[in-house]
Design brief:
SH3 type barrels; binds heme C; Cytochrome Bc1 Complex, Chain D, domain 2; alpha+beta; six-stranded antiparallel β-sheet; 33% helix; 10 helices; 253 residues
């Protein structure tokens, strides 16, 4: 039983990369993102698809662009259409384009999870009083037991963040999973993987120390399939959860 919670996974850990950060990083309000979503569904989805990958070579949700880089580029593309002619110009109000940009930049939350993004300012208060900082760090404040949330809004879509809060076991990213390393000398180290290169794995151990382990010394390297992240479903109201997700969505490093 205890064993079935573990899976061997070094190969998986080795191939994770981070997306390239866009040049501009604004914080968007929940209202903008939601407005953008409605407009996207009616004006853009036909070509760009439900998940933003309908046009070959472009993924709007994963921020993989061929023609645009900055928010201003996206604005120009929407307003003028593409020079290639594949995309028509749209005559939209400034706020409408802002909403579309916010929706695209927030990673297009189309996971179908029914929750409502709330108010980011209230969400920060929920964060501060829910004990999150006992495990997480934002902009240098807090602990290192859980992943750093400083740019969580850039890395994850709102729906994924919501799932992390309500059903953490479903949302856990391989990179965040707790690992257990057994060294050739018999010593066992448990913690959360911090980073890794060709020769070393670095872990944050349960005492929050950064431990560097030479790969040559490792006998086994296992990734736990359970999680230390508590579920907040029932502990926070739907409104509080919506506010909290809105706050976390604004964290873009
Ligand atoms: C008729 C189909 C169509 C519609 C509708 C459409 N697009 Fe496009 N869009 C394209 C094509 C095709 C491209 C790639 C450029 C080209 O081939 O001309 C593109 C490119 C883009 C790009 C740049 C992608 C990159 O890789 O750099 C963005 C951003 C974009 N569209 C956003 C939107 C938004 C927002 C809307 C809704 C307001 C929208 N598009 C509506 C077809 C469309
Ligand atoms: C007891 C420690 C602990 C507490 C308290 C805690 N978390 Fe976590 N959290 C974790 C750990 C550990 C993970 C990594 C997931 C795993 O274990 O697989 C995580 C994962 C997450 C993730 C997903 C991160 C990612 O990279 O996708 C989010 C978002 C998150 N927590 C937010 C919160 C918020 C907001 C609170 C407070 C309401 C909170 N957590 C409270 C330990 C904690």
């Amino acid at each position: 039983m205890a064993r079935s919670g573990w899976l061997l996974g070094p190969a998986l850990l080795l191939c994770l990369g981070l997306p390239v950060r866009a040049q501009e990083d604004h914080a968007y309000t929940a209202e903008q993102i939601q407005g953008g979503y409605r407009l996207y569904a009616s004006q853009c989805q036909l070509c760009h698809g439900l998940n933003g990958d309908g046009v070959a070579g472009t993924s709007l949700s994963r921020q993989q662009f061929r023609f645009v880089t900055t928010d201003a580029d996206i604005r120009r593309m929407v307003t003028n259409g593409s020079t290639g002619g594949g995309m028509p110009p749209f005559s939209l109000k400034d706020e409408e384009v802002d909403g579309l940009i916010a929706f695209i930049r927030s990673g297009m939350d189309r996971t179908g999870i029914s929750f409502r993004l709330g108010d980011a300012a209230r969400g920060k208060i929920v964060y501060d009083r829910s004990g999150c900082a006992a495990c997480h760090r934002i902009a240098g404040q807090g602990a290192r037991i859980g992943p750093n949330l400083t740019d969580i809004g850039f890395l994850r879509r709102p729906g994924q963040i919501f799932t992390s809060l309500t059903e953490p076991i479903k949302a856990t990213m391989p990179i965040n999973r707790p690992v257990m390393i057994v060294l050739k000398n018999g010593r066992t180290i448990k913690g959360r993987r911090y980073d890794e290169d060709t020769f070393f794995v670095r872990l944050i151990d349960s005492d929050e120390r950064l431990v560097s382990v030479s790969k040559g010394d490792i006998r086994s390297y296992q990734v736990r399939m359970d999680t230390d992240m508590p579920s907040f479903r029932g502990r926070l109201s739907d409104g509080e959860l919506g506010d909290l997700v809105a706050y976390l969505t604004t964290l873009k490093g």
